[in-house]
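Reopening this ticket.

The earlier resolution said the output was attached, but the attachment link was broken on my side. Pasting everything inline this time so it's all in one place.
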Amino acid sequence: GFGGFGGGGSRGAQKHQGSDLRLKVRLTLEEVAKGATKKFKVKKDVTCTHCHGSGSQDGKTESCATCHGTGYVTRQVNTMFGRMQQQSVCSTCGGQGTVIKNKCSHCSGEGIVYAEEIVTVKIPAGVAEGMQLSMSGKGNAGKRNGVPGDLLILIEEEPHAELIRDENDLIYNLLLDVPTAALGGTADIPTIDSKVRVKIEPGTQPGKVLRLRGKGLPSVNGYGTGDLLVNISVYIPETLSRDEKAAMEKFQKSDNFRPNESLKDKIFRKFKNLFD
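Inline output:
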């Protein structure tokens, strides 16, 4: 921001500070996984190209006669402790220490103009909704070659059609039919960039979770990658035909289709763990 006060000349003069620029960036889950480079057209204060930010038409400035180039003035004030010196920013030069006699006609001596500029933003992999990134010096330019502000980037995420994010892990809800759960088979599971085929073991129970290591999202700090968790549920038909109902009634009479207490406890223990 601001320079300290010096012993003479313009060393104590202040530099104008440009304001920060805020920008929202909306990313897909694929962009979160791999990182992204985005380009935006933004309206902001930029350095005047005609005077190169000096604010002077001829490039010349003069030392402020009021503050003698220091950027501040000193005056005597009466306080309860007696007369004391008080320093304040020079109102003539605004703390700059210099004044312009021949102002630039394009920026009116400000050294900046409001214009459109293309900003390139590089987003690292692993960012998350609500994170704010900062690009130093990419905000609004400071008046008369002052210090530019920062570009503050707020991350937003687009929901994925099939995958749910849980920090660096991804969750996929797989709904099996009764025959596949009972007999076993395969299922195609979507990942960030492809599909993978997983084996369904015979007798797979609702609530079982398959963990696909390393198929999640990378950590934004570069340490490790999350997993893809496949939550398995089994679809029970809401209506049955006459033949289907007869077949199910036969199964109902089979001892093999009656859950025992040990299996019941095992299944509900898995179900409870989902909420712990």
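Reporter confirms the inline version is readable. Residues 264 and 270 are 10 Å apart (CA to CA). The two ends are 48 Å apart (CA to CA).
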